[in-house]
């Protein structure tokens, strides 16, 4: 004769050897701490790097445009366009991350410091 289902648990282990404890009736499996948000960690190094990229990119864009218009004389005018392109390539990520940092500091919805890569890891 086969043992009844109520006397065994899962894989044939008798119920008297299974150890468990009942949950309280008021416990829903959640605790309040898991829903609390920790204060945002501000990535100061990343914001400093973004500021540096923004300033250097702006300077290179200004110098490149002055070279291109002829306000600064250069003997080889074919070297002015790369200065402008490098300035734009450096300016864009700096501007992007500074904008995210500004909106996150002001508390705009959808912006947080988590969107800025942190270099402390």
* Integer-rounded radius of gyration: 31 Å
Number of helices: 2
Largest sheet, spatial ordering of strands:
1-2
Q: What is the number of E strands?
A: 2
The overall pLDDT average reads 81
Helix content: 40-55%
- Content-based structural category: mainly alpha
Q: What distance lies between the first and last C-alpha atoms, to the nearest angstrom?
A: 63 Å
Low-confidence stretches: none
Question: What fraction of residues sit in β-strands?
Answer: under 5%
The run of helices and strands is: EEHH
For the largest beta-sheet, the strand count, sense and barrel status come to: 2 strands, antiparallel
Shape: rod-shaped
Function: Involved in trafficking and recycling of synaptic vesicles.
Pfam family, one: TMEM_230_134
Family: Belongs to the TMEM134/TMEM230 family.
Keywords: Cytoplasmic vesicle, Endosome, Golgi apparatus, Membrane, Synapse, Transmembrane, Transmembrane helix
